[in-house]
Amino acid sequence: MTRSAFHGIPLAAFGLALSFVLAACGDDSSSTGPVPGASSASGHVDPGLSSAGGSGAPGTGGSSQGGAPGTDVSSATGFSSAAGGGVSYEQGDVPPKADWVAPTCQATGSDVPANDPCVLYFGRWDRATVPESPTASWSGAHIRLKFNGTGISIKMTTNSEQGYLKQIDGGELTKLNVDESASATVPLFSGLPAGEHELTFYRRSEGSFGMFSVQGFVVEGGTIVVPNAPSSRMIECMGNSITAGFAADAPTNSLETNNTITAWCVQTAMKLGAEWSVVAHSGQGMYINLNGTGTQEPNSDHIATMYDEYQWMHFPTWSGVAPHNWQYNSSGNRVPWDWSVIPDVAIYAIGTNDYINPDPSDLAQFNALFKAKYKDFIKNVVRPHYPRERTTIFLHGIVLPDEWTPHHKWDTANRNVEELVAELNAEGDDRVFAINPRPTYSNAGSWLADGNVDFNGDRTHPSAGGHQILATKVSAIVREKMGW
After folding, report:
1. How does residue 48 score in pLDDT terms, banded at 50, 70 and 90?
2. Domain boundary pick from 225, 244, 268
3. Contact 37/286 with Cβ under 8 angstroms?
4. pLDDT > 90? residue 153
5. Which stretches of 272-408 are DSSP H helices?
């Protein structure tokens, strides 16, 4: 069962206190959505960027996935979106993979299997457990394919109502909700001019809204054809609610306003003409989660943070939306991420939720524990799979004004991130950089303005316009360091 496209979201001034938002949006299973995530930014390259290491672009190996939206758009034009509250999304030039080998399509008729080589998947997908039905749960996961015909539908299964975006031929992004269904054929586009068209289908709602599987596609009056070459650039982001697009399209989080595609990471990738993957979970931290809560491992006292979840194929088992008894990704059948795609750029925007917690009397000890955990993550989790010769890492600081939190702990977190980058550089990893969205450590120097100008009423989560500011800042920094 489908619902009609959502074309407008009223912006209301909610003016919620930060403490209320953090409590209401945490990782408690009674909540319908989670909380802050660190962010990213714009401007030019020098402000907010630090590294003791080199600046040249390393050799860029292509990714095995492809698909920034609208890749048939050859110029850096903006396109309007019902998804972004009227903000135009900018699509940069997409440099195709030079060594890409076009696949041979298996389908010859209207029914296209989900595992046809000509269907391209982006983000984290489990394509091995049930090859004929790829499954994903992280937000931002998307699909791209080309077909010759007059319309197209997707055959899919969800375990809860979820939010998507559909796009044809690089045009307008239109919202679509898909209800829980044992198996459904969801019409996407019909009545198109006969000929070749390109479909992109995006998961915009966070992983807490559930898992979905794809069983195939139905092409009206034709069949699938060889897709366009993917981009030679690949960006992966890890973060929490800001990265996940919590309330990105309007104040208060809901299925309609939760949108990872509006959020800074995907918008950064679009501006750079890059493919992307997003691993984001609201309320989570690197060392500790919001208020110390989160995904508790079964039969264990261990609370999983993004240190753990980044290594998983799927969003973890708990959820703040019904049904609350999902069993996928529990410890007994958890699927580890296979590290099958090596990004050119990895951006880690984490720490906001860590630094909501510590008492100032314990701050020195907490700083040491946070940095140690983060350093271990970079050196022992990431670098064995993403070597410095292939992947440039950016550690993104906290974007929220420090004056909004007691004891000025968020600026402390940003200083710790800069110190950690300096340590990694000194140890020989010169392809790690710090991005500080508050380079002067003052509101006057913050990338986002106070109040509800760049935030959606809660002084915590950026509006669509705020995310555009962040994406402009971050894309400029990445472009300079990567030589893009």
Report:
1. very low
2. 225
3. no
4. yes
5. 306-309, 363-376
Is residue 262 located within the same domain as residue 171? no
The CA distance from 27 to 427, in Å, is 36
Are 235 and 94 within 8 A, CB to CB? no
**Nearest alpha-carbon partner for 305 in 313, 297, 364:** 297
How far apart (Å, rounded) are the C-alpha atoms in residues 418 and 216?
Answer: 46
Q: What is the pTM of this model?
A: 0.83
User: What angle, rounded to 10 degrees, do the helices at 264-271 and 464-482 form?
Assistant: 50
What CATH code is carried by the domain that includes residue 26? 3.40.50.1110
How does pLDDT run across 200-237, given as a tens digit for each residue? Answer: 999 999 998 888 999 999 999 999 999 999 999 999 99
Q: How far apart are CA 275 and CA 93, in angstroms?
A: 12
**Spatial CA neighbour of 119 closest among 100, 96, 142, 151:** 142
Residues contacting 159, CB < 8 A, separation 6+: 180, 210, 211, 212, 323, 326, 328
Residue 187 in tokens: 């019409």
Q: What is the CATH number of the domain that holds 168?
A: 2.60.120.260
pLDDT for the residue numbered 234: 98
Domain count, the chain: 2
Pairing status of strand 135-136 against strand 212-220: antiparallel
318 pLDDT exceeds 60? no
Q: Are 423 and 403 in contact (CB under 8 A)?
A: no
Length of the chain: 484
- Any idea which residue has 């795609």 for tokens? 341
The sign one gets for the Cα dihedral 142, 477, 393, 290 is: negative
Q: Could you tell me the residue range of the domain that residue 179 belongs to?
A: 111-225
φ and ψ of 24, to 5 deg: -75, -25
3-state secondary structure at position 296: strand
- Beta-strand (E) ranges in 21-72? 49-50
Helix, coil or strand: residue 145: strand
Of 225, 255, 281, the residue at which a domain comes to its end is 225
pLDDT digits (tens, 9 = 90+) for 84-130: 445 668 889 999 999 999 999 999 999 999 999 999 999 999 999 89
